[in-house]
Amino acid sequence: MYGRYTQDLGTFAKDEAARLRLQQGHGEGGTPRLRRPSELLEYTQGRCVRCRVCALQCQRFLISKVGEDWVFLILLGLVMALVSWAMDFAIATCLQAQKWMYGGLDTNVLLQYLAWVTYPTVLITFSAGFTQILAPQAVGSGIPEMKTILRGVVLKEYLTFKTFVAKVIGLTCALGSGMPLGKEGPFVHIASMCAALLSRFLSLFGGIYENEARNIEMLAAACAVGVGCCFAAPIGGVLFSIEVTSTFFAVRNYWRGFFAATFSAFIFRVLAVWNKDEETITALFKTRFRLDFPFDLQELPAFAVIGIASGFGGALFVYLNRKIVQFMRRQKTINRFLMKKRLLFPALVTLLISTLTFPPGFGQFMAGQLTQKDTLVTLFDNQTWAKQGLSDEFEYLGILEAWRHPRSNVFVTLVVFILMKFWMSALATTIPVPCGAFMPVFVIGAAFGRLVGESMAAWFPDGIHTDSNIYRIVPGGYAVVGAAALSGAVTHTVSTAVIVFELTGQISHILPVMIAVILANAVAQSLQPSLYDSIIRIKKLPYLPELGWGHHEKYNVRVEDIMVRDIHYVTLNCKYRDLQHVLHSTKMKSLPLVESAESMILLGSIERAQVGALLSHQLSPQRRLQALRQKALAEDGHRLSEASICFQISTETSSGAPTHTASRKPLKPALKRVPSSLVTSPPAGTTDNTGIALKSLFCTNTATEPTE
C-alpha cells in the first residue's frame, strides 16, 4: 500500500560507489589499472612501511574528525567565552579608572567635572573614529544585519576579520565609557563573525565547511552563543536567538545552539572563578527572594499593570529612537555638517549625557555614579527601601547609598532615573559606535518595576494579609518582572523571561514574569515594530518584516499589484541608438536583457555602470584603429553604400578569410566601415552613428559559443 524499497539505501549507495570506482579504475583499453593513493607512494619503500602508512591513516582520520560539528562548536564556544571575559575585564578596568580619577580629585569640584566628562568623551570619540576608519560595518547592534544574512542576503564585509577587530575594540571602549549602551546585540554579531572565520579556517581540513547551507546553520548556532556568553544564560540565549534572527528554525540546529551556548557560558563563568571574581559558578545577578511565599495572588494585578505599561514604554522607546535618527537625516544642513565632522556628534552626545549624570550635579537625583551592573544589583535587592516610621527606616549601605538623597525620597529618585535614562538611552544608541540597546532597556525596566514595588510596599507596609499570615512585599521581584517586560516589549520576544531567570538564578517569579512579558508583547506589537525591524527599515536592508496587527488584509496583495510594468529593457539585436535611449530615459541601476521585443524572454540583467564601461570599451579609439587595420588587410571586403558603423555577429569559419580570423582577437563583434572612410576622415564636430548587437556585451565567453 505504501510502497516498498527492494534494497536498503545505504547498501545501494555503497554498491554504486564501488561500481563507479571499478569503472574508473579501468584504462581506455578496458584493462583494469591498479591505483594507489598518491599520499601512500612515498611510504611504500624503505623500512617501517607499515608504521608510516598507519601514521598517515591516523593523521587523515584526525583531520577528518576536525570537520565534525562538535569540534567546531567547542572551538566557537571557547573563543567567544575568552573574548567575552577579556572584554568584561577591560570594561571593568576602564570604569574603575574613571571612578579612581573622580575620587582622587574630591578637593576640587571643577576638576572632578572635567575628569568625569573628558574620560567618556575621549573613549567614545576614539571608538567612533577607530570603527569608521577600520570597518564602518561594525557600527550599531549587528542583529538587524544578522537577520538579513540568515534570510539568504549577502552583505559584503559584515563577517570579516577586519570587522571583528573593529567591533571588539570599539565595543570595549564604548562600554568602558559608562554610557547607557549594551553589549548583547554586538555579541551576536561578534559570535557570527567568529563562526564565519572559523569556517574558513576549518575548510582547510575538509570541504564540508564550504557548503553555504552548513555555514548558515553554524551562524544560527553562533547567534545563540553570543547571547549565552554575554549573560551566562545558555537556554535563554538559544531561545532569544531563535526569536530574534529566524523566521523559521531547523530543529536539527537545536542541539548545536544548546551545546555551543552551554559550553561558552560554562567557560565564561569558570574564568570568573579563576580570576577570583566569584567563589563558584553562580548567576550574574544573584538574588535571594524567599521561596516559600514569593508573592501573593492579589499582587498579580500589579504585575499585569507592569506588563501593560512596559508595552507602551517599549513602543515609545522604539518610536523615539527612530524619530531621532530620521530627524538627523532629514535636516540637510545638520546632516551635511555631521558628515564632514563625523566625530562631533558622538562627542556632543557623550558630553551632554555625562554632564547630566555628574554625581555632585543633577546626577545626585538619579544615582549617577553607579554603573549598569551596580544599578541592577541594587534594583534586584531584597530589602524594601521605602518604609514608614522613623524607627523602621532602612539603612543605606554600600552602593545603595547612591539612591538616597537628603532632600528627596526614593520615589523621586526612581522617577527621575527612569525619565532621564529613557531618552538618554534612546539618544545614545544612535551614536555611530558598536553598541546594543538591550541592557539599557533592561535597567530602565528594572527601575520601573522597582518603583511599582516600592509603591506597593508603601501602600501595604505590613504586607498583604492571607490566612492570618503576613508576608511583606518584595520590591526586588517587581524589578525582575519590569526588566523582563520592558526588554521583551522593545525586542518583541518572550525569551527575555528565561534570560531573567538565568541572570537572577531564581525561578520563583515565573508566573508574574510570563504574564507581564506576554502582555507587554501584545501591547508593543500592536503599536510599533521591534527595535531590530525598525533599524532594518532605517537602514533599508533587503528584509521583509512581519506584518503587524491590523495589516492582515495585505496578505492577499499579489506581486502583479505592486510591480512596475513600464520597464525599459535591452534586446539582443538592439542598436547603439536604442541602447543610448534606454540609458538616458531611465535611472535604474540594473537593466533587464530580453531575447526580443516580441518574445520578451528574460535572459538576465546587467548593471547600468557595466553597460557604460562595455560601451566605452567597444567604441574606444584603439578598437576603431584595430578594426581599420583589419579591414585594410582583409582580402574580400564588402563595400557598403551607407556611411554608418555597425557591429554585427561574426560568422566566419575556418575556411573563409583565414587572414582575417588569424589577425583578430576572439571577439564576436567586428567593426565594419565604408571604404570611403578609410581614405577620408569625417569632418570635425560630426559624430558617427553606430549600432550594436548586445549579445557580445552580456556573454563573457564568446569564443567557445557555436556559430550562429
UniProtKB/TrEMBL annotation:
GO terms for cellular component: chloride channel complex; plasma membrane. Residues 677-687 have a biased composition (Polar residues). InterPro entries: CBS_dom_sf, Cl-channel_core, Cl_channel_volt-gated, ClC. CDD domains: ClC_1_like. The keyword Transmembrane helix applies. It is found in: Membrane. The chain crosses the membrane at residues 70-92, 113-135, 187-206, 218-242, 254-274, 300-322, 343-362, 438-460, 480-503, 510-527. Residues 653-687 are annotated as: Disordered. One of its GO terms (molecular function) is voltage-gated chloride channel activity. It is a multi-pass membrane protein. Keywords: CBS domain, Chloride, Chloride channel, Ion channel, Ion transport, Membrane, Repeat, Transmembrane, Transmembrane helix, Transport. The keyword Transmembrane helix applies. Residues 662-671 have a biased composition (Basic residues). This is CLCN2 protein. It comes from Atlantisia rogersi. The gene is Clcn2.
